[in-house]
């Protein structure tokens, strides 16, 4: 086992949230980017994320990336974050740039860092499961420093708007995948499928693939290596700009962002890199992506259901009923069957 390293976190909070603009408006009718919207009437999704991450990473090692045009919202939200940690990008050029810029910045300060990358539009009910999952991801990386750990959950429906993680199939006589004392299972990844069509999503769910939560844990250098192997020119241009301090010049930054194009981390980096990925599973009900109105309604319904159970429990004399865990244990499927379901170009 290799020596442990300090854990940092990159919080992705620079998106526009265009799919939710009909919902995320303030009292004047102005659109609020989803990560700053107080979806429960009290707390923004970004604040949920910072509080959750703060249970495993100290505040001075949390690195949010935000958009310059959103300053009116993140200025107050990030008041407690060290100013040197706040990475501001001038334009949205996809999640590769959104991860690469803060990743390069933090590796200048801590070249041996381990990093937890997380979106800021999720809700997670079970913070204890999250903490345990991060600890297990760190253990996995200590054993295999080049692995990229992705957190997945059992799929509840054939959602074509999410990424899917296909576990490596195992022969019946082979050793079962690793399982922790709190129910998480670790698999190697056979294939990463980003936003499949509905027919393929239905097949993936039926045969045991997992939803990708977008949460990544990895050694910073391993993650940089993965990005470089997929997008060498983008990586090298960002690396040169960061090392030479060019991001201090706004004109240089704008020129770079104008020239690099837009790349998606899941589609352009993770999909072609399945052999480097490890999957750790979270409990079924502990996570929800709040990136669409439909998922928000689902989340509100689940909250109301739990609140109803709690209220009803006050009138019961016996034990409180519990909500079933939902999805059965997933059975890995053959990647060749997935390929057969892909739409032809």
From TrEMBL:
<dbReference type="InterPro" id="IPR005835">
    <property type="entry name" value="NTP_transferase_dom"/>
</dbReference>
<dbReference type="GO" id="GO:0004475">
    <property type="term" value="F:mannose-1-phosphate guanylyltransferase (GTP) activity"/>
</dbReference>
<keyword id="KW-0808">Transferase</keyword>
<dbReference type="GO" id="GO:0009298">
    <property type="term" value="P:GDP-mannose biosynthetic process"/>
</dbReference>
<dbReference type="Pfam" id="PF00483">
    <property type="entry name" value="NTP_transferase"/>
</dbReference>
<protein>
    <submittedName>
        <fullName>NTP transferase domain-containing protein</fullName>
    </submittedName>
</protein>
<feature type="region of interest" description="Disordered">
    <location>
        <begin position="319"/>
        <end position="345"/>
    </location>
</feature>
<feature type="domain" description="Nucleotidyl transferase">
    <location>
        <begin position="9"/>
        <end position="292"/>
    </location>
</feature>
<dbReference type="InterPro" id="IPR051161">
    <property type="entry name" value="Mannose-6P_isomerase_type2"/>
</dbReference>
<dbReference type="InterPro" id="IPR029044">
    <property type="entry name" value="Nucleotide-diphossugar_trans"/>
</dbReference>
